[in-house]
Design a protein that fits this description.
225 residues, six-stranded parallel beta sheet, Rossmann fold, 6 helices, 6 strands, alpha/beta
């Protein structure tokens, strides 16, 4: 009797545009089952078209990573479902020109809520799904701007601090979840989000996603420093 191949699954936060949308496209093309989250599926026309063309291999879930109730509700929809790869992609840059004397603390708190607390909320809500899978992988997109050693230009205090903090959160999770066989890593997003036309931006998204997917093949994993 021929063995039945198990289809791997991925959950991607913030999958309605940019890197998240490109991740969804690429994992679908690779034959994965894809769970794509966004705050407003009605407004996510491209993602809805992708789901319609997927042959039911892509499911859209409503999720706001800053709202614990929303995250837990999404997790309840996938109760008992194994998730091989949990991909924390959601993130914001926040207000610009934030330097001493001109700090918007409410905006800073929002960046931390999305970029740092958001991945923790999602990881905590879906950890049982990940533990139930074969690959047991949690990946969070970070940035070189979260590096203490590489900060030679200052500025971007809110964004830098949020990425430095999420690196530490994921480092702790990596230790805490070792006993459950779950691998928890961060992967650097190398491309900026400004200055690109729509077509070129999509090409860059495709290239970066292809590189980041290498974590599933055991390379291009960043060290957490």
């Amino acid at each position: 009797m021929r063995a039945v191949l198990k289809v791997p699954s991925v959950l991607i936060t913030g999958a309605n545009r940019g890197l998240g949308f490109e991740f969804a496209k690429q994992y679908l093309a690779d034959g994965w089952e894809v769970y794509s989250t966004c705050r407003d599926p009605v407004a996510a026309s491209e993602l809805r078209r992708l789901a319609e063309d997927s042959g039911e291999r892509l499911q859209i879930l409503v999720m706001d990573v800053t709202d614990l109730g929303s995250v837990q509700a999404a997790a309840s929809e996938l109760d008992e479902q194994a998730i091989d790869l949990l991909l924390n992609n959601s993130g914001i840059i926040g207000a610009q020109a934030q330097r001493i004397g001109n700090i918007d603390y409410d905006a800073w708190a929002k960046v931390l809520d999305v970029n740092t607390l958001g991945p923790m909320r999602v990881a905590e809500a879906f950890v049982e799904n990940v533990a139930r899978s074969d690959r047991k992988l949690i990946v969070t997109l970070t940035s070189g701007m979260g590096s203490l050693a590489d900060n030679t230009s200052g500025g971007s205090i809110a964004y830098r601090s949020s990425k430095a903090a999420v690196n530490m959160v994921m480092r702790s999770l990596a230790i805490d979840l070792t006993s459950r066989g779950i691998t928890c890593v961060v992967v650097k997003s190398r491309l900026g989000t400004d200055g690109y036309g729509r077509r070129e931006r999509h090409l860059n998204d495709a290239r970066e996603c292809d590189c980041a997917k290498g974590v599933d093949r055991d390379f291009w994993v960043s060290a957490i420093r």
